[in-house]
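Lab meeting prep.
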Amino acid sequence: MSVLSYVVGVIFMLVCAALVVLVLAQEGKNQGLGAIQGTVENTYWGKNKGRSREGVLKKVTIILSVLFVVIAIVLNMNIL
């Protein structure tokens, strides 16, 4: 194995650990009875969800999950 494959493997493990932490840090989708009526999205925080902490966590989780899949495919192809 080359040095590059070890470096990519370490990056892969760091991405995996970060992904686990981010998924556990996110709130659940259960918002109580307000979610059933749809009143949660009519608030200021519901409209600006992308700018809040939860929105940032969601965006970073999506980016890390795509990176996870790409690195997993590269490591599986044995091109390094």
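Slide two material, second protein:
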Amino acid sequence: MAKDKNSIIDLSKENLSFEERNQTIKLLTFRTQTMCLDIAIYEKDKFIKNSTMVFAHLPKKLKAKLNPTSK
């Protein structure tokens, strides 16, 4: 994934998600300048709300996919 410092990366077609507190968190966009993600929250396959979260709160597996400098 090529990124520049001020880009917004569309992740909606990547189908990246993880489970947390009986909810499924799906990644929508990654804002590289602020290191924040736009997310959609689902509970039992029902949409609850859109929200944002910081990159640091992602599981390690997803961080590695989004940040090529991490190992």
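Talking points for slide two:
The beta strands are 8-10, 17-20, 23-31, 36-43, 46-54.
Residues 23 and 44 are 7 Å apart (CA to CA).
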